[in-house]
Specification:
By secondary structure, the chain is α/β, with parallel strands linked by helices. It is built from ten helices and 16 strands. Bound molecules: threonylcarbamoyladenylate and magnesium ion (MG).
């Protein structure tokens, strides 16, 4: 057991503030965490997507610690986080101009770009033996400042135990990793609530989305109308040797049985209530994940409101916390209302479908 240190970073500094006083305070609070990272420690920190568990990406012993703390399979590579575009030069080999344009348009932001890795610069554990590395620059003043102060490229997967939902609060990190890591920077709730979009470049004109996330497909199409965008994740279950190794793992499966119900709202409500009746007659503990417009319709033991169906960004922010809540309540059967796959809804349904083990009921 290690004593896990917690730094509470002023919530107000959590925006991209230019206020010097605030930045100075943030700076002094992050120095200790940055020093821990530089000396081989494991430090969790907030990003605009989810909390990450960081280690110096050049230090194999530190990176091995990430896999151990999380219980993560070693063939699943880690994303390297940078604060400054100038760090790229020493990490990757020459890359297509399209990658440069993606960085200009979306960094800092929730876009991970898979690039050819420079040999011998990063721990081989980071890339899990691949010739590429996923790199991103988070859009969050706390992570950017921590990365800057640490003066190293930081490998950081989501800061959850393997098989649990990604953490959107410092408390989630503590629940999963207390005593297993050196520190947690608590910067309040994360923004997007789902992980970054991971893309790979096939050539100058073809972009492959390996994992949908914070940067939506629509945003990519709008920014690069002439580029062909391929969606690897659509065929998730059919990909035998996925390009993104993480895709072959069921990221998260709740302890109870989760089903997604898709169809006309009224049919969805009728169907779920019927199932609730059956489960209750068998004395099972039940849960429903519903949009605000319908929460009052359900008579489950736990009904979690994920916000208005017109605000899928809010549902994205709440999803992982809701899944954790069902687990903690010991819910045995859960139903979730499906959502539209437009905008962030694409990533939202992707995560939900995975959590449900692809169990979708069409009504
Ligand atoms: O938003 C995020 O991306 C968060 C925060 C902390 O930055 N990080 C995150 O990391 O979600 P992780 O390890 O949970 O997911 C990384 C994903 C995995 O699916 C992995 O397989 C894929 O990125 N990946 C990493 N390096 C890759 C590479 N070289 N080629 C293909 N896929 C890669
Ligand atoms: Mg993860």
């Amino acid at each position: 057991m290690i004593k896990t240190k917690i730094w509470h970073v002023d919530r107000q500094s959590n925006t991209n503030s230019t206020n010097q006083e605030q930045n100075k305070k943030l700076y002094s609070e992050l120095i200790e965490g940055a020093e821990m990272l530089r000396s081989g420690g494991l430090v969790a920190f907030p990003t605009e997507t989810v909390y990450g568990l960081g280690a110096d990406a050049r230090n194999s012993e530190a990176v091995a610690g990430i896999f151990e703390a999380k219980g993560r399979p070693s063939d699943n590579p880690l994303i390297v986080h940078i604060a400054d575009i100038n760090q790229l030069g020493e990490l990757v080999l020459p890359y297509p101009q399209l990658a440069k344009e993606l960085m200009n348009r979306f960094w800092p932001g929730p876009l991970t770009i898979v690039l050819p890795v420079q040999p011998d610069k990063l721990s081989p554990l980071v890339t899990a033996g691949l010739s590429t590395v996923g790199i991103r620059m988070p859009d969050h003043s706390v992570s950017l400042e921590l990365l800057r102060l640490s003066e190293c490229p930081v490998a950081a997967p989501s800061a959850n135990r393997s098989g649990r939902p990604s953490p959107t609060l410092a408390q989630h990190v503590l629940d999963d990793l207390d005593g297993r890591i050196d520190g947690i920077v608590d910067g309040g709730p994360t923004g997007v609530g789902l992980e970054s979009t991971v893309v790979e470049l096939e050539d100058e004109r073809t972009l492959r989305i390996l994992r949908p996330g914070g940067i939506t497909e629509e945003a990519l199409i709008e920014a690069f109308p002439d580029v062909c965008i391929v969606k690897e994740h659509v065929n998730d279950e059919m990909v035998e040797k996925p390009r993104s190794p993480g895709m072959k793992y069921t990221h998260y499966a709740p302890k109870g049985e989760l089903s997604i119900v898709q169809g006309d709202s009224l049919n969805v409500i009728v169907y779920i209530n019927k199932q609730l009746e059956i489960a209750k007659s068998e004395n099972k503990l039940t849960g429903v994940l519903a949009f605000s417009e319908h929460v009052s319709e359900y008579k489950a033991d736990r009904v979690i409101d994920c916000g208005s169906e017109k605000r899928l960004d809010e549902a994205a922010q709440r999803l992982y916390a809701a899944l954790r809540e069902f687990d903690e309540a010991g819910v045995q059967f859960m139903w979730a209302e499906a959502c539209k796959t437009e905008g962030i809804g694409g990533a939202l349904m992707n995560r939900l479908v995975k959590a449900a083990g692809h169990q979708i009921i069409y009504v």
